[in-house]
Amino acid sequence: MRFDDLRKLATGSVLFNLGRIISPRLVTILYLLGLAAIGLWAINHFFSSFRFGFGNGLWGLLEIAVFGLLAFVALRIVCEAVIVFFRANSVEAETYEPEHMGASLIDDVREAIEDLADQEPDPVEPAAPAPVAPTPPAPATPVAEEPAIMPEEEAPKPAAKRRATRAKPAPKA
């Protein structure tokens, strides 16, 4: 696989297009990667167990035989289960056709949000109260006018209050 192929895979519509089912093809790749991982573990364990002596190395060979076989069987069962699942649902996968292909991922997300909004129930609006007959407006009452404010120069000044003085008794003659 060249760099151009990886670039096309990463930027193209293969990964982001849900109209095409690619998972069954990936099971084979995952199985091969699992076998490689089991093989690398076995080699590493072989050399690390013999590092501590011949007896530990023989015990490591037994561990490789037992745990390696268990890992191989578990990997095989998981991969076969995934393949059986995809074969059982192959009819649905073949008949699946998206409504339409969006121009971009943003369009697909926008349409998905709109679909979710359409599925939500509309909020129940409270019933409006029965209309009440309008009451005739009350007759207009005249508003008393405010007195005009005079400028300070022209405004009359309040008269100074006189003190009440006691009348002096008249001199007696």
UniProtKB/TrEMBL annotation:
Compositionally skewed regions (Low complexity) per UniProt: 141-150
Domain of life the protein comes from: Bacteria
UniProt feature, compositional bias: Pro residues: 124-140
Transmembrane segments: 26-44, 64-86
Provenance organism: Pelagibacterium flavum
Claim: Transmembrane is one of the keywords in the record: yes
Name of the featured protein: DUF4282 domain-containing protein
Protein keywords: Membrane, Transmembrane, Transmembrane helix
Lineage: Bacteria, Pseudomonadati, Pseudomonadota, Alphaproteobacteria, Hyphomicrobiales
